[in-house]
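Sorry to interrupt, but I need a hand with the structure work. Leave the record below and I will have a look:
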Amino acid sequence: MYDHIGLKVKDLAASKRFYEAALAPLGHVLGSHDDTYAGLGPAGAPALWLYATPGAQGPGTHVAFCAANHEAVDAFYKAGLKAGAKDNGGPGPRPDYSPSYYAAFLIDPDGNNVEAVCP
């Protein structure tokens, strides 16, 4: 549905570590990057862009990534926690969203709510 998303981040290295770890189970990899930005997404098609913005403090954004199955959602959550994210809702069904909705939520290093979902 979207072409790409850009997030301003205070610490590019920390954010890159988090997103590389948490998104690997979803099939995403680090693509184009330098000291000021990093692009992640499917190989050859980065769609999440991180932009180094020292002192950035936004209201927090919600980004949800599609997962192939429940195991990928679980792996996203575990890898994200290991990479320094904060829990914002462990893996499990969310019947209040829809009968088959299965998701996990993490808070990234910049306070964004990051979700992996297998609808």
